[in-house]
Write a structure and sequence with these properties.
The complex is a heterodimer of chains A (155) and B (114). With 155 residues, chain A is an alpha+beta fold. Chain A is built from three helices and five strands. In chain B, helix 1 (27-39) links the parallel strand 2 and strand 3 (44-55). Chain B has 114 residues and is α/β, with parallel strands linked by helices. The N and C termini of chain B lie far apart (37 Å). In chain B, 41% of the residues lie in helices and 33% in strands. Classes of the chains: A alpha+beta (155), B alpha/beta (114). The A-B interface holds A 25-26, 28-29, 32, 47, 50-51, 53-54, 57-58, 61, 65, 108, 110-111, 113-115, 117, 119-120, 122-123, 125-126, 129-130 and B 2, 21, 23-25, 54, 56-58, 60-61, 64-65, 67-68, 71, 85, 89, 92-94, 97-99.
Chain lengths: 155, 114
């Protein structure tokens, strides 16, 4: 495995992996483990990996829970991890009906008391906070969520 | 199962030590455990996070429900020994406004008697 340069020198890291995900509650945990192993093999910082793991867990849990409201299609969810010299990127692609979890996720009112705080609605808020870029597109009949984290240039 | 919960009762306070990971796959078990403790009279609840490695919004949901329940029962809830990365999740979620976070179990227990 090629080493990362932390000095900003160009190296040529370009690695990726893809995994199919089932509609099961413990799948985000399996993918989180794969992400951790992938990140550790490529010497990403544990702090960055931990934050990215939470963002990915939240988004993928959301897809598994909401992307297939009926039996109209045979569900397919595919997660692709990709790392190069400048950033870690994960794409989650599913063949469910159009569903943009980012649009339907108003920022929670964090000033409310415990009694008034609604239960839930924090997942996308956390994902947005813990990854640099989080985007949705509808591409060729599929929902596509992309998480991107630039790599730190300082150790 | 990647989460273990150990409960100790000290007077009117219950200390729930959580070990491992709380995510969408096991948050319901955690919620159920907290409910059992509160139903047994532990309306003063301390969650010891010293060995908690990971929490997602599903786990926060269980914690918010427990805060609501303990408040309604005239008690309250606190957390302690929270690792930095867990503390960050609590802060981003606004939970540090809802629940006191202490350094030690003893500090958390003492917080109730004040």
């Amino acid at each position: 495995m090629k080493q990362f340069s932390r000095s900003g020198r160009m190296t040529d890291v370009d690695v990726g992996m893809e995994v199919d995900v089932a509609i099961k509650a413990d799948e985000p945990r399996r993918v989180a483990k794969l992400l951790q192993r992938f990140g550790q093999e490529n010497e990403l910082s544990s702090k960055m990996l931990g934050r990215f793991e939470l963002a990915l867990d939240e988004v993928l849990t959301n897809v598994i829970t909401h992307a297939f409201p009926d039996d109209a299609v045979e569900p397919s969810i595919r997660v692709a991890l990709h790392l190069n010299d400048s950033r870690l990127k994960v794409r989650i692609v599913d063949n469910g009906p159009p569903f943009d979890p980012l649009q339907d996720a108003p920022a929670p009112d964090l000033s409310l008391s415990a009694e008034d705080r609604p239960v839930g609605g924090l997942g996308i808020h956390l994902a947005r906070a813990f990854v640099h870029t989080l985007e949705y597109e509808r591409v060729e009949g599929c929902n596509c969520l992309t998480l991107v984290q630039p790599l730190e240039t300082q150790p | 199962m990647t989460m273990n919960v150990t409960t100790k009762y000290a007077g009117s306070t219950a200390v729930v030590a959580v070990n491992g990971r709380i995510d969408s796959a096991n948050a319901k078990d955690f919620d159920q455990k907290l409910s059992e403790v509160i139903d047994r009279g532990g309306s003063r609840l301390v969650i010891d996070c010293g060995d908690l490695t990971y929490i997602s919004s599903a786990g926060l949901r269980a914690i918010l429900l427990a805060i609501k329940r303990t408040n309604a029962a005239g008690g309250g809830m606190a957390m302690c020994r929270t690792p930095d990365h867990i503390r960050e999740v609590l802060e981003v979620s606004g939970f540090t406004r809802l629940i006191q976070v202490y350094e030690t179990v003893e500090d958390a227990e003492a917080g109730f008697s004040g």
